[in-house]
Amino acid sequence: MSTHHILFTADLHGNTKQYEKLFKEAYDKKIDTIIIGGDLLPKDAKSRTIQDQKKFISNTLFTTIVRFNTENKKRDHICNIFLMLGNDDFKANSQFLKENQERKGFSVIHNTCLPLFEDFKIIGYSFVPLTPFKYKDWEKLDADIEHETETRKGFVTEGIQTEGGKIVKKSFDLSERDDTIENDLKKLMELANPRKTILVTHSPPYNTKLDMIRSKDHVGSLAIRSIIEKNQPLISLHGHIHETVEVSGTFKEKIGKTLCLSAGNDHLNPQVHVISLDLYDTESAKRIAI
């Protein structure tokens, strides 16, 4: 019987100790695939600059991955590494990340469909619905305008984003519905057989146990929920809301046949929380603290 063991987490936000624990666990357990679903880089007041996030990519992320791959090669083991940026990571560094993926030994999965194992595919998507925060690089209008004007609350339409290596102002027009999360995901889901697909979105689906903030409001994506309902991928993996598992009391929820999972990781914790699962036995998925 086939097995393929996956470790998934998100929201490490440059916590080097969490990175060390994640990759040590993957090495010790001979994991087949690591997936990091966004918010890779530091966001503290000192390091939240384009240049400092780029330094972290070069000096910590790349170094950690190369060391891990080198040690695995010595014992003839290959572990796939899939990752993508999240809403607290400056988009200005996305090209730098992509340019180094083949040489450093990982794959960037945002807005693409890639082979995972045998006939399984992985689809990644970084954008999240509008938030109350000013950083707008990875924010997009979600689904329909009624949802964003009548159901969701607390978000702001004005902020900043990176463009050409500089920080510029960003403004959203809620009536402009061409460039949405929903439209992007519809195209992506046409690229694979959903029942053989792992969908990785930084945002969780709306109105689930995976998108609850401390007030118990739901802040996930309606478009992501709709895409899951209609396409029924095998698994969906999510981050973004650090406290959701603590608030809701669970890391998983079924939407139809799709098993939706949240790492519920918080970079301020000494431990890193990860989802451990077997591609061929998804129901046995666990959330563990390392």
Question: What's the end-to-end separation, in Å?
Answer: 28 Å
Task: Count structural domains.
Answer: 1
- Count every helix, treating DSSP H or I runs of 4 or more residues as helices: 7
CATH topology term: Purple Acid Phosphatase, chain A, domain 2
Listing every helix as H and every strand as E from the N terminus to the C terminus, the arrangement reads EHEHEHEEEHEEHEHEHEEEE
Largest sheet: 6 strands, mixed
Summarize the structure.
By secondary structure, the protein is α/β, with parallel strands linked by helices. It is built from seven helices and 14 strands. 27% of the residues lie in helices and 26% in strands.
Descriptive overview:
This protein has about 290 residues and is an alpha/beta fold. The chain has one domain (about 5-290): Purple Acid Phosphatase, chain A, domain 2, CATH 3.60.21. It is built from seven helices and 14 strands. It has helices spanning about 15-30, 50-75, 95-105, 145-150, 180-190, 220-230, 245-250, and strands at about 5-10, 35, 80-85, 105-110, 110-115, 120-125, 160-165, 165-170, 195-200, 235-240, 250-255, 260, 275-280, 280-290. The strands form three sheets. It has a six-stranded mixed β-sheet. Helix 1 runs parallel beside helix 2 (about 50-75). The longest helix is centred in the N-terminal third of the chain and has 25 residues, at about 50-75. The chain is globular and about 55 Å long. The two termini are about 30 Å apart. The model has no long low-confidence stretch (mean pLDDT about 95).
What attributes characterize this protein structure?
290 residues; alpha/beta; Purple Acid Phosphatase, chain A, domain 2; 6-stranded mixed beta sheet; 7 helices; globular
